[in-house]
Amino acid sequence: MQIEREATGSDLVLKVSGRLDTPNAKPFEQSLLAAVAETSGRITVDLAGVDYVSSSGLRALLVAGKAMRAAKRELALRALQPQIREVFDISGFSTLFEIT
Amino acid sequence: MLAFAELLAGLGLLFVGLKFMSAHLQQAMGRRVRALLKAATRSRLIGFVCGAMTGAIAQSSNAVTLIAANLVRGGVLTTREAIPVVAGANVGTSALVFIAAIDTRIAVLYLVGLVGCSYQFKLDRKPVQREWMGVLLGLALLFLGLELIREAPTTIALKDAAALLSGIGPFLGFGIGLGLALVTQSSSTATVLCVAAVQAEMIGLHDSFFVVLGANFGSGLATLLSAGGLHGTGKQLCFVQIIVRGVGCLVVFLAWAAAAAAGLSGGVTFSSISSGGTSFAISIIFLLLQLSGGLAAIAFLGTTEALARRFSPPNREDHVSRPHFITDDALGHVSTALDLAARETDRLIRHLPDLLPDLDQSGADDAKVRAIQWRGAAAIARATDVFLVELIDRQPVREDLDIALALQHQQGLIEALQDTLKSFADAIDSFPAPPPLAFNLCESLRAIVLELADTRGGSAAEFDLLIALTAERSEILERIRRTLSTAALGTAEEARTLLRALSFFERAVWLVHRLAMTLRPAANEANRDLAGDHLTRDEADAD
Known about the structure:
Chain A has a single domain (about 1-100), classed as STAS domain (Transcription Regulator spoIIAA). In chain A, about 45% of the residues lie in helices and about 35% in strands. Chain A has helices spanning about 20-40, 55-70, 80-90, and strands at about 1-10, 10-20, 45-55, 75-80, 100. Chain B has about 550 residues and is an all-alpha fold. Chain B contains 25 helices and no strands. The termini of chain B are far apart. Chain B: It is a multi-pass membrane protein. Chain B: InterPro entries: Na/Pi_transpt.
């Protein structure tokens, strides 16, 4: 798994590629939480390069989403591949995040 | 032909009567049975007497053994404490054999009259009275069945039947008794049939001795066969039954053989002891089988326990089936009992994710381990439910009653969720390689249940998030259903399994939603206080 950061003012885009599975979930969660702490604006996670999401990957996003909610900010997701979008729809996670 | 029909009707009435009587007796005395079994821990003698009483109530040592085995699995009794109960239960079932040995024709008439008049004059309004009416009606049907069995052979070729059964010999007699006990799952029922055959002069005392011996041993095997769901410590009592029955057979057979060696007929000896005819002699033999085996097991309690432990050593299921917090001692102090029940509920929720496959780490996942986890979790949920019912029965103050009822409601949801997750996991496990939709459903449900496990004891805002996450989603699921109906999948069986998994998924999400609403602090502030000290997920993993 690889994560690229693109900052625009106070906003941040995280471009993720690879698999969001159990071994990668913890580093992914730590990167997200670090981004929440470092920035004051909106965070967008670009999932165009992600072709696999497990329950651990979903939970990492949820932890970051909660942290953003507590800070009264929004975590957005974008460019989900169709099979990844289906996981988000079935699990109900698409109702918790803004997806573009 | 009519006589055969009478014989068949007699057997039918006998079985229906037994079932009817046993079911109503357990309803009428069910709570006392549990209290009796719990009182058994005081001493061996009390355990034996309690076992005899429960055996007489349930009229099935098999049922008492399985109830006691579940109490052992739940940690209420130890195997050592339960051995006298099992031994006593066998003695209790002798009551039916003695009743069958007496002339019941007049009793049947009185019983039917009594029950009929009671129904006509509405004396069955109260539930307890209704159950006792059921017991009496069951007894009447049983007696009527016995009468039909006794009478039927006199109208058919009695001599032919007697000739067929005469001199069946020890081995065949033993085999017939063993088979009857395995089919009827009861040594007393098999012996009652033997008594009827003796009364109809179809069989002599010598042959019926070996039939009763076989029935006694067969009943022990029947207990083991009907304990399919029990493993480890829970199964030890089934082996105790076999030991008790086997020792009983050996002791009584040696006494019979000793009488023969001394130049006496075993049959004559037992008849003279009973001084009440052949039927009573059989009842006495049955009672001696139970007493000799039972008393030997109690006298050599340590050896019996060691043997049972050797046949069925403790396993992982024993650990996961045992409640960690609730104990019967706590029932005397309501607030402590509620606190413990809340902690047990909390623990059950924490372990819910263990019931689902982890497809992301398929190498580390084991369906057999998950099945053990499910059986253990279900046993704890049942034990907690019983604990709460007993607590509510003690009529606590209003505030405590509200908390107990809320916990009971949560227990109901947890039990339903456990079963739904098991069914969902079974559907997923049935795929040699789960298709993408099965993977997505499984990982989605796992994420939701993991969130439930982590949110317990959390703030209202965290529960609101979970409630939103598990909100209605019929649109997407309906779309998937339509796709499954029309898409070209691998096989029709695959589509059917996916549809089944989808239904279980939908139900599981709905149950998590309902559970989250009952656990949300604002909805149940008092309960939140009780369940205060929640363990973290890491601590849970170490548990």
